[in-house]
Amino acid sequence: GGMGRGIAEVAAASGFETILVKATPGELDQARRSIAESLGRAVKKGKLSAAALDATLERLTLTRDLDALAGCGLVVESIVEDLSHKQALFRDIESRISASCVLASNTSALSLARIAETVPHPGRVAGLHFFNPVHRMQLVEVVRAPSTGDAAVATCVEFVRKLGKVPVVVADSPGFLVN
């Protein structure tokens, strides 16, 4: 939905090669258009150059194929807030990514520990809780489940900083810090 698009937009604008895998119905072109329109508003406000807009869109791949995630160093999930859906998706993604890839959930309400316990390598699972609208909100919670490894936390913190945002590391508890 809008949150996934927002995270993809900010990542691509920050220089990351970004793959947006669309889990919900609707046209891929429509998602790309909505990101282009959002970037266009930033150009109008003088916050982004036209060249930067073009470069951002070039770094962005939209697909429905989870196999496209094979080369990623970090995957951020932002599907519907439903535990069994997230657990199934995490298992599916984990079977397709490299051993060093960090798997993050944008959940704000569900137990990260319950999501992590369902995958073979729970140490790579962390939370990356963005707030709406993603491009404006500076704070991002990096959520640590009991099983989350230091390397996964460090990867998430570095990612948030490279987005020009402020990472706050919090322990996994539904409701977290701000809600």
**What is the strand arrangement across the widest sheet?**
3-4-5-6-7
- The overall pLDDT, averaged over residues, is 93
| Shape field | globular
Task: Give the percentage of residues in beta strands.
Answer: 15-25%
Radius of gyration from the alpha-carbon trace, in angstroms: 16 Å
Helical content band: 25-40%
Low-confidence stretches: none
Number of helices: 6
Structural class: alpha/beta
Distance between the first and last residues' Cα: 20 Å
Q: How many distinct beta strands?
A: 7
The helix-strand sequence is HEHHEEHEHEEHE
Q: Biggest sheet, open or closed, and with what strands and sense?
A: 5 strands, mixed
Report what the structure shows.
It is a single chain. The chain has 179 residues and is an alpha/beta fold. 38% of the residues lie in helices and 18% in strands. It contains six helices and seven strands. The protein has helices at 2-13, 28-44, 50-58, 83-94, 112-116, 150-162, and strands at residues 18-21, 60-63, 74-77, 102-105, 125-129, 139-144, 166-171. A five-stranded mixed β-sheet has the order 3-4-5-6-7, with helices on both faces. Strands 1-2 form a two-stranded parallel ribbon.
